[in-house]
Design brief:
Layout (H helix, E strand, L loop, with lengths): L1 H28 L7 E7 L2 E6 L6 E3 L12 H5 L4 E2 L4 E2 L8 E5 L5 E5 L2 E2 L18 E2 L2 E6 L5 E2 L3
Parallel strand pairs: 1-5
Antiparallel strand pairs: 1-2, 3-10, 4-7, 6-7, 7-8, 9-10, 10-11
Length: 154
């Protein structure tokens, strides 16, 4: 019994470390000195926002306008899309809807249509949308259309 508990504890700890490592890798993945690039990709929800690697971007309904409320455990599972400069619009993305918001730690998070943008830690490959409609940290998470609107199905 003690061995089973130790194995389960070790497995849980390894899973947490892996999730945090993935979150940090994703959070820095699409940012360059010129600014994070936001693209469109075709999905089962229509054309949605993705980063330069095709990883899906989400918004969180609990955010207060362009101000993020996702920190700590929330940001570990839903890493923000950070940028070092002005975000860059890919084909079909409206540059006029792209912006940034300063987080509590001073880092710049990309916004689109007034929504701070996030990854979901379980989306590790282009085309994955496993965070769509997930209700965590007090509200649902949605993919975003080219028009800057949440897509509420799926």
């Amino acid at each position: 019994m003690k061995i089973t508990i130790k194995l389960l504890t070790a497995f849980a700890a390894a899973a947490v470390v892996a999730a945090i490592a993935t979150a940090f890798a994703l959070a820095g993945g699409a940012q360059t000195a010129a600014g994070a690039k936001v693209h469109l990709a075709t999905s089962k929800f229509g054309r949605i926002l993705v980063d330069s690697k095709g990883i899906t971007l989400y918004d969180f309904v609990k955010d207060k306008g362009t101000t993020s409320v996702c920190y700590g455990a929330c940001a570990a599972l839903w890493p923000p899309l950070f940028t070092n400069g002005k975000p860059v619009a890919g084909p079909g993305v409206r540059a006029s809807l792209l912006g940034t918001t300063k987080r509590k730690d001073g880092k710049l998070e990309v916004t689109y249509g007034g929504h701070p943008l996030y990854y979901f830690v379980s989306d590790t490959k282009p085309g994955q949308t496993t965070g769509q409609g997930v209700n965590q940290f007090g509200g649902p998470w949605w993919v975003i259309s080219a028009a800057g609107k949440e897509i509420h199905h799926g």
